[in-house]
Amino acid sequence: MTQLPETTAKKLGLVIDLDTCVGCHACVISCKGWNTENYGAPLSDVDAYGADPHGTFLNRVHSFEVQPDTGGCAQTVHFPKSCLHCEDAPCVTVCPTGASYKRSEDGIVLVNEDDCIGCGLCAWACPYGARELDQLAGVMKKCTLCIDRIYNENIPEVDRIPSCVRTCPAGARHFGDFADPDSNVSKLVAERGGIDLMPEQGTKPVNKYLPPRPKDTLQEVAADAPILTPVTDSPKGFLGWLDKALEAL
Amino acid sequence: MHPAPSVIIFTVFSGLGFGLMAWLGMGYPTVTGWTAFWFFTIAYVLAGGGLIASTFHLGNRKNALKAFTQWRTSWLSREAWMAVGTMAVMGLFALLAVFFNSNLVYLGAIGAVMALITVYTTSMMYAQLKTVPRWNHWSTSALFILLALGGGAILAGDTLGTLFFLTLALVVQMYVWMAGDKRFAARGHTMETATGLGRIGKVRLYEPPHSGTNYLLHEMVYVVGRKHVLKLRLMALLMGYLIPLLLAGLSGRWFDLQITALIAHVIGMLAQRWLFFAEAEHVVGLYYDKR
User: Fold this and answer.
1) For position A47, which CATH number holds?
2) Ramachandran angles phi, psi of A75, nearest 5°
3) How many angstroms away from the CA of B249 is the closest CA of chain A?
4) Does the structure's ipTM exceed the value 0.95?
């Protein structure tokens, strides 16, 4: 059913901390690893060992450089991007078959691959590039928020979070319920001023990004300035003796 | 956006086919017997052929019938219903005209309106997309409908209809090109809003996520051939609009130079539709610093 639910009981999603992400792409690899062998069709690669390799990924890390308006050093920002599980998900309503849907219980946006015709209209409707048509299976693939992990009672409790979150070595990714104001993710968003991507599209994304903190500014140093200035003019002890001995030469 | 041949053929030819159906339904010309048979055959081959072409870009065609289920929200689903509905209603109208020499005026009028609604639903698959500012405007639908009527008039051999609707389409086409060129910037989508980093300062792409390509870049960030935009626009203008209009003007009440006008119009429309896709910039390109 492609009508969006009025409200969802939970709003499960991710917080991505742009200040902490180091751009290691571990989330990309763990996502591909988990999702290629679990929910739905595998994430295929085309010409994987050839000259023009490309494939399906549900999470990709872009890297940007921002030049602060206030001056100072440019900042490198590593920017993981996956489905934002929007409240007003335009990808769901355009679907002609009902394969795309948003779950009323937890707000996760999913594709039922048994109904998908692979028309690609949902990928066109998504501003964020979160959906990719698998070139081998011919069906639309997207982030499932690891629905087969978060409710999976056959794996240890510590693993019942999305694969990307479980993997991130920097702790830059957080999973939780945005409908609960006391949840870890809601608190992070409140404390750090979490932001929406492309808010002017009106999609109301659930996932939030924590902006990078401002960096220190470098002090201007003349090009011909001595690189090391003397720490002290009159050393004592062994260094004092060495100083005198060297000057005597 | 990637100008896939299947969608170019689909929109151009099904537009022409439903346009001709609209004219036949309104009784311009009023035809019966063998004449009606050939007119309706042309209309159905164009409309049906276009629809069949549209299925070639589906990744998973075996589920195609399920596309009829989500008419409540999906323009693609509505398009499927309207196309089938129009072809059924006009099929009955054609049957009566061909075999019983009878024209049911009201049935034809209903079919004509449905044919135009079908073209409108086709246009809305594109015009609904906020992610493609160039398309996301009423003028996209206006142009699709006027072109169906103008092209349909050439097929129907209606000189006055061609002159009237193709001139209107030409005016809207000029507006679509001029306003469309500015709309992406006017909507305010930038790398700064896409990343949310605009509050810090100016953003540039430091490194893309991968060295190769991907589905998104192939499908939505089509930048090949943009340097020929002006030439293609001139070709679309000349072949699609000006030559058919000139030939219609030179013809009498009956469209003497119909076939030449039609060939020119189709060539012009193929160029115009290629541009419709190739020129359309999707906002996802901002994440790749490409549009």
Assistant:
1) 3.30.70.20
2) -110, 135
3) 41
4) no
